[in-house]
Structure to design on (184 residues):
């Protein structure tokens, strides 16, 4: 018997965001228009996720997985000892990873939109004088992109470690929505 944990919106959001960011990253140099629209897609996806984090089903809500510092540090210590409690939804470390990824991807998308205005004087900010700050905006966009890549690497490592520790296929759960229920 399996339990539905991830609703269709969360699953579609997760994979669409991963695809949009990865494709935007790969098209940054050669396919500017596609890169730009994928950046807008990332921003739109994040903006759709925010109300779902307040109003969606239990495991989609931020209150379900964003833990305070004490609980997060206790979970991290137990995880490093191999004794962390299994969570049906996101564990406290995964919860903070979601918050950080949403924040950094928002900064990446917004700095990209701002960079388009600075370099090409186009987009919603195209009529501004942002071209004066082009180098700073470009540096912010590159920094946030690299930070997003680092967080994605940590996220994938966490998924692998957690899948191994609890002997469950978390990527499959993010496709089907189902995980095995708690046994306690």
């Amino acid at each position: 018997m399996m339990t539905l944990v991830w609703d269709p919106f969360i699953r579609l959001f997760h994979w669409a965001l991963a695809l949009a960011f990865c494709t935007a990253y790969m098209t940054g140099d050669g396919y500017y228009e596609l890169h730009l629209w994928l950046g807008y897609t990332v921003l739109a996806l994040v903006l759709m996720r925010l109300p779902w984090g307040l109003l969606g089903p239990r495991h989609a809500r931020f209150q379900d997985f964003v833990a305070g510092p004490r609980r997060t540090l206790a979970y991290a210590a137990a995880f490093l000892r191999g004794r962390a409690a299994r969570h049906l939804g996101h564990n406290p470390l995964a919860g903070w990873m979601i918050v950080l990824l949403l924040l950094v991807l928002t900064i990446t998308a917004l700095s990209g939109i701002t960079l388009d205005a600075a370099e090409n004087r186009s987009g919603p900010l195209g009529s501004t004088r942002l071209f004066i700050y082009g180098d700073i905006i470009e540096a912010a966009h590159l920094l946030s992109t690299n930070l997003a890549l680092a967080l994605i690497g940590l996220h994938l490592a966490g998924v692998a470690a957690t899948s191994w520790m609890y002997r469950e296929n978390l990527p499959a759960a993010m496709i089907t929505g189902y995980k095995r229920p708690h046994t306690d």
